[in-house]
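User: Hey, quick favor. My workstation is busy. Could you predict this chain's structure for me?
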Amino acid sequence: MGILSRPGTHRDRVAARGTCLLFCLLLAALFPGGQLSAQELDGMQVERDAVADLLRCHLKALGGRERILALTGARVTSTVKAFGLEGRSVTWTGAPNLIRNELDLGFITQSALFDGETAWKMDGNQRVSRLEGQEREALVGRAVFASHLYCFPEINGSLYQYRGPTKRDGRTLLCLEVSPPGGAPASLYFDPDSCLLVRSEIRHKELDSVTTYGDFHKVDGVLFPFHSLLSTGDARFDVETRVESVTLDPVVDDRFYTLAEAEEVGFDCRLTNGDAAEDIPMYLATDLIMLEVEVNGAEGLHFLLDTGASVSVINQSLVTRLGLEKKGRLVEVIGAAGRAEASFTRVDSIAMPGLELVNQRLLSVDLDLFLPYVGLQVDGILGYDFISRFVLKIDYENQTVSAYRPSAYRYNGEGQVLDIELQGNLPVIEGLVEDQYQGRFLLDTGASAALVLHREFIEAHNLLRGKRDRREVFSGGVGGVVRQISARLSAFEVGRYSFADLPALFSLEPRSEGRARRTPVSGKIGATLLNHFTIYLDYRRGQVVLEPNRFHSEPVRVDRSGMQLVLSDGNVLVAGVAKSSPARRAGVRVLDRMVMLDGRPVLELGLPYIRDVLRGPAGNRVRLMLDRRGKERKVTLKLKEYR
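Assistant: No problem, here it is.
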């Protein structure tokens, strides 16, 4: 969700990572163990014996092999403290690896289920969807551990590697890496005296986490940890769980572990015209989609429509103005340049022509931080929990958005239907770079670059080699400024559509360490490329339709001035000037204040309009009035490509 993903105007994913991480962390805290993936055994008999001996001792400590094998399931009720909120979790497990969890933290409520084949999630707005990618792997891994299936290598298909005595927090523990198919490796640590599992370390795609277990109690002959603490290295975001009660062998039907994917939009959304709300006006701000909405009856608010946001967001300043209640000790949300903080809130309604959302839970984030880069007031963001309710049509050519009830809509056009995977509630699609490098890319209407490539993908394929047109740009993001390289790709393909000589941003974000995020995709396709299509997003069916519009044959629009502009204290300032650019040749300098553009005051025009003018056709002349330390200076730029 980078509100802007272009030189000087990038904001990456304010809340996109927040709820995905929150979901995975809560799963990790509620169920001992971790999400796991295949790993080769070395085949040595001594190692197999060590694994068998450790698990035999562990089973004995839990209550004995026969007692554990006889379990048909359990119901565990716990109190949970997380992110400044406190609530309750109820988890059911069934043999061999069924699981259902219901969590209620007041402002956060969600359910997660796995029926042995399909994983489901129901969010706080009662939206049911299948879990894919990392979230699915996390839940399946929890099912293996919560049901004690990890104790039986001969029946669970997992692979094991014994690491032996290992120092952790001043203690010597016995380390066992367990790797059933479908997840990331988890290191399990057992007390050498009791053989109890007292610690797990899990390497998520997003971050590392450590969970410690204690306060063991026997329930009908089976030992359970009644306390766990999950940490990612920052105590502000610890998740603490205390078990209140355990019931063994509860009688439940297997259907209890399945959620039917709802066909209707949902009880909290009203379509005022039957099955659709068509042609909702939108306007573009440097290719970003802005919708005018009402929140709790307050009119004239501007929300960004952002497929790169895993939740919907409301600006903290608007929360204060509307007198909304905030909850939580601030949840971390991760962006391109660092971390920001958020809390939870609730609104009675979000309305626009033809539809209304009621009783919505939102993240409250300080979006005013991005005013310098966006150049306009952003009151909120409509993300996954809005988009997923509908088949959503985005018509860049006519600047409208239409929302259709999924059960009543079928696409009959000539565009290409492509599969998408929802990864952390974000749509990911396959693409081909430079005719040979396959990657997975986030479709991000909240990023105004054409294409952004992530560092790991760049380095894996040495994509900057031979790029003579490269130039360094700086972009504003969460937590500060990020450094990127602007250069061109010879080719990029998505589906049957190809783009030659495509301008792209190459992220130079350092590799993550500690709790920092790790990039699970190769990059993202932004609005400057997406606006060449009419787009139909159908999350329920896991599809996106790309239908070329009249812009499709036109090249991707790029800045032809060489100026990076920001809004500061009501002034439009030059934050950067590219070498060999029209602005550099005209003598424009950093910190020059732009006063007039083609004879009109820039503050009347707005930063998005100015940027559009500077992306005009090559050869266009743009007259500027600049102020440099109190002295006015007139310059004329002749727009052209610069590299």
